[in-house]
Design a protein that fits this description.
By secondary structure, the protein is mainly α. Helices cover 64% and strands 0% of the residues.
Length: 153
C-alpha cells in the first residue's frame, strides 16, 4: 500500500524494538528451549509473541508439557498415563500437528522401558544414505551390502 501511494513504510515496532518480521524470526530459537534456559531478551520476546499469537503459546505449552512427561517418568505405566492425559489436552486444543505422536503411541512408550531411543538407528541410516549418494546410487545390491558389513561391522 505504501508503495502504491508513494509513502515511506514504517513498520510497527514492539516494546523491545523488533518489527513483526524480526520478532517471528528471532523467536524461533526460544521456542525450542525450556523457559528456565531463556535469556532476558528471549523472555521479553516470548511475552510479546505469546500476546500477539496465542496459538503459538498454546503449541509451546503443549510441547513443554510433553517434554515434562519424558524427563521425570520412570516406568511405562506412569508414562502411559501422563501421555494419555497430555493427549486429551491436545484434543481439546484442536492442534493436529501432534498427530504423529498419537500414531506412534506404542513405540514412543518403549522409551520408558530402559530410556533408549532410536537415535543410533537413525544415525546409521544417515550414514548409509551418505555412502549411497557418494557413489551416486547402487547397481549391485549384494556388493553394496558386502561393503556396508566390512565398513561398519
Amino acid at each position: 500500500m505504501a508503495r502504491l501511494t508513494d509513502q515511506i513504510y514504517k513498520p510497527k515496532l514492539f516494546s523491545n524494538g523488533d518489527t513483526r518480521k524480526q520478532l517471528l524470526a528471532r523467536s524461533r530459537y526460544l521456542l525450542y528451549k525450556a523457559p528456565s534456559n531463556w535469556t532476558k531478551n528471549q523472555y521479553e520476546r516470548s511475552q510479546i509473541i505469546f500476546k500477539e499469537y496465542p496459538d503459538i503459546k498454546t503449541a509451546f505449552n503443549l510441547g513443554q508439557n510433553l517434554r515434562n512427561i519424558f524427563n521425570p517418568a520412570k516406568s511405562i505405566e506412569i508414562g502411559y498415563t501422563k501421555l494419555a492425559h497430555w493427549y486429551n489436552e491436545v484434543e481439546q486444543s484442536g492442534f493436529r500437528a501432534f498427530n504423529t505422536i498419537t500414531i506412534n503411541y506404542r513405540s514412543i512408550l518403549n522409551y520408558f522401558v530402559n530410556r533408549s531411543t532410536n537415535a543410533s538407528t537413525e544415525s546409521f541410516n544417515a550414514k548409509i544414505k551418505a555412502i549411497r549418494s557418494q557413489f551416486r546410487g547402487v547397481k549391485n545390491v549384494a556388493f553394496f551390502l558386502f561393503r556396508l558389513t566390512t565398513i561398519f561391522a
